[in-house]
Specification:
By secondary structure, the chain is an alpha+beta fold. 50% of the residues lie in helices and 12% in strands. It is built from 24 helices and nine strands. Strand 1 and strand 2 form a beta hairpin.
């Protein structure tokens, strides 16, 4: 077959490109025959393959030609895009310590405009913008350097976190633009004719940010700041990203590759419908997961049901290790630690070794002097111990005498609960804990004295001051114990200061505390009948 070139008039009518209509008449355009057409022309700057289009045969204006040759530095914009992407990645990495529900989950891509692609775009834009300077080109084109933030879960909270992160890096006054795909009028455009496919879905949807680069981010990873540097950051869902990548050239570069066929349009439109449905399902899935893992326990009953169904507590015996204890104390502790949601509880239970090999004995063995908790309280005590932060502040707690007495009563009530009964707590304090006679006498006052009742129920400072000296030794002893990680007395005191036991009526508090006197030689001791 004889090789030959074919010349003919090519007329292009009403091509859509980024919202404007291009009508041009190209006369005498040379179309290369199959003998010398290279459909895999290399882009020399990056070694990427790209198809030859009829735009490659057009001669750009001298201004455009000069801009591409002398003012567009691909390596600079590549390093600019990479630097912007790295800044976002660093922020994402810093969030790894946060719970999953509070983190932004995204994948970051970046690119610089390929010179050949830019050349084609400028030829097209020049038809309507009529560039008169290089500055006009820079003002018109915003994506020399581009970053795409791909959201795995395209929910509104995730989009809000992306917005906050971008503004934190590039500035609060950054420009934001919605790319909402086709407008309703375009979907119903009857002028397309009966043979034209009418899309039923909106197409590519994203949020674009035009971010000015800050000079302070310069001189790293090959990037050197130039005044006016900016990056277009696109925030898009993962499914929309995949759809856009698959159909970009066909859908948005029809000026270069020819209009898509009716069947191609229909397939792309159907896929876009699936993408939009998929985004809704992902958002709903994300909301469901967040609700299951981060919804706060509203009531101790809800907390008990959660423990009963927790996958790590696979046997009824393991579940009873928690359920038999006072869950109201544990739940209040979790609330005060901002850990009263399922995922935090599950992680803490898992750290205790459930469901493989619980490490309860290892935790109990850390207490000095040795303390044997009641079986029903062991799991609760170990969980609290593991989750209680280390006390580093040497400043001692100060409060009014009446409040000090109430806190110490609550601490001793907790010790009684963990020991299982008042008699066991009494024996532990008398036989295991070393304390001076002064401390013991002061504790006896807290445990048994009828004189504390008047101060606890009084609103007058004078009545409270009367018991201040009686509380002094016990109060200082408890505060010293609080700084000892191995002390069970220090642990219950810290819990009481935190407020894990809600204040009850005075009578209820007195009735609940059943440890009794540590020594019958104390002048502060009265009979059970007197103090109750």
């Amino acid at each position: 077959m004889r090789k030959s070139n074919i010349s003919f008039r090519l007329t292009i009518k009403s091509h859509r490109f980024n919202g404007f209509l291009l009508t041009s008449y190209l006369k005498g355009t040379q179309i290369l025959s199959s003998s010398n057409m290279d459909t895999n022309e290399r882009a020399p700057s990056r070694g990427l393959t790209r198809s030859v289009t009829w735009l490659a045969q057009l001669e750009p204006s001298e201004l455009v030609k000069n801009f591409i040759s002398n003012e567009y530095y691909f390596d600079h914009y590549y390093n600019l895009a990479k630097r912007a992407a790295d800044l976002i990645k660093e922020k994402l990495a810093a969030e790894k310590g946060k719970p999953d529900g509070e983190r932004l989950h995204a994948n970051i891509r970046f690119r610089a405009k390929e010179p050949d692609s830019l050349r084609e775009k400028l030829i097209m834009r020049d038809q309507t913008e009529h560039y008169d300077s290089s500055e006009a080109i820079k003002k018109d084109i915003h994506d020399f350097a581009g970053v795409r933030m791909i959201l795995y879960m395209p929910s509104e909270p995730q989009r809000g976190k992306a917005d906050a992160m971008i503004r934190d890096i590039f500035g609060q006054d950054i420009k934001k633009r919605l790319h909402e795909g086709l407008r309703p009028a375009e979907l119903q455009d009857e002028s397309q004719g009966q043979k034209k496919y009418k899309p039923k879905h909106l197409g590519y949807e994203a949020v674009h940010y035009r971010a000015p680069m800050k000079e302070e981010y310069s001189v790293r990873d090959g990037y050197h700041f130039i005044p006016g540097d900016k990056v277009e950051i696109q925030v898009v869902s993962a499914l929309s990203h995949a759809w856009a990548e698959a159909g970009h050239d066909v859908k948005y570069k029809s000026y270069a590759y020819g209009p898509p066929t009716f069947q191609e349009e229909r397939v792309l439109d159907a896929l876009n419908g699936l993408v939009q449905s998929g985004d809704l399902l992902l958002e709903q899935f994300h909301d469901m997961v967040l609700k299951r893992t981060f919804t706060r326990f509203a009531h101790v009953h809800d907390f008990g049901i959660y423990l009963d169904n927790l996958d790590l507590l696979v046997s009824s015996e393991e579940t009873r290790k928690f359920e038999e204890g006072p869950l109201d104390v544990l739940l209040e502790f979790l609330r005060l630690q901002d850990k009263d949601y399922p995922l935090a509880v599950r992680n803490a239970v898992k750290e205790l070794g459930f469901s493989d090999e619980p490490k309860l004995d290892d935790v109990v063995a850390t207490f000095q002097p040795p303390f044997k908790p009641d079986d029903s309280m062991t799991a609760t005590l170990c969980l609290i111990y593991r989750m209680l932060p280390q006390l580093t502040d040497d400043k001692k707690t100060e409060s009014a005498p009446g409040r000090r007495c109430r806190v110490m009563m609550n601490a001793l009530t907790l010790l009684q609960d963990f020991a299982g009964q008042g008699e066991a707590a009494n024996r532990f304090l008398r036989e295991k804990v070393e304390m001076t006679d002064e401390v013991k006498q002061s504790l006896n006052f807290v445990l048994t004295s009828t004189r504390r009742q008047a101060a606890l129920s009084a609103d007058y400072e004078d009545d409270q001051q009367k018991i201040k000296s009686d509380l002094h030794a016990a109060w200082n002893w408890f505060q010293d114990q609080a700084h000892d990680r191995t002390s069970i007395c220090g642990l219950v005191f810290r819990l009481a200061v935190m407020g894990v036991i809600k204040d009850k009526t005075l009578k209820a508090s007195l009735d609940q505390l059943d440890i009794g006197p540590l020594s019958r030689t104390s002048t502060g001791w009265e009979s059970d009948t007197d103090h109750k």
